[in-house]
Amino acid sequence: MPDTSTLPTLRDALALGLTAAEYELVCEKQDGAPNQVELAMYSLLWSEHCAYKHSKKLLRTLPTEGEHVVMGPGENAGAVVQTVAFMLLVSLLALSAIAYMTARLGFYYRARTHRRAARATLDEFFATRQPALTALVPSYQEDQRVIRMTLLSAALQEYPNLRIVLLIDDPPNPRYSAQHRLLEDARSLPDEIEMLLAAPSSRFTIATQRFIASRQWATTSTPPRPRSRPPSRASTPPR
Hints:
Blueprint lengths: L9 H6 L4 H11 L5 H10 L2 H4 L4 H4 L17 H37 L5 H10 L4 E7 L4 H12 L6 E7 L8 H44 L19
Parallel strand pairs: 1-2
C-alpha cells in the first residue's frame, strides 16, 4: 500500500494544471489518490496540448464530413497537412515549369514563321525616315562584365538613330564594400564604352563622309565630250 502521507494533494494537482473536479474524478476512478507519477501523467494527457479540453467545445461545432473536409477527427492530421502542403508546392513548381516551356514553345513557333527583311527593304526604309529609338538597360547589382556585354550588344546594333540608357537601380548609399564596388563599376561603364567606340566611330564617320562626297561629285560632274572629226574625203581611183 502506498504511503498516503507522500501522495500529492489537491494543491499539487492544481499546480500541474488539473482542476478540482478532474482531481476528484481521478480519485474516484482509482479508488484513491494518485501518486506523483500518475498525477503527472494525468496532467499531461488531459492538457490542452493532448486532449484539447478547452477548445474541444469549439472544435465540435466544425464539420467533420463533407466535400471540403480533407480528414475528419483522428490521428495523423499533421501528416496529412504536410502532405497536402507538399503536393501544393510541387504542383505550383510544375505549373511554373509548364508555363515557361509554353512560352518558349511560342517563341519557336514565331521564329519558324519569321522571315528576315531584305537588306534593300531596310535601306529603302531608313533612306526616307529614321525614327528615334531608345534602348533601356536595367541593372541591379550586376557584374561589370555582364553590363559591358549588354551595352556593347545594344550599341553595335545596325540602327541609325539609337540611344542607349543605363538604368542603375543599385542603392545610392551602399552599406558594404562589395555593393559599393558594383555601383562604381556600373557608373564608370558608359564613359568606358564611349572611349572604346570613339576611335572606330571617327574612322567610320570620315569614311562615310568621303563616300558621300564621291557620290555627289559623280552625280554633279559631266564627263568631257569627244571632239568631232571632219568627214574624210573619199579618194577617187585613177582611171
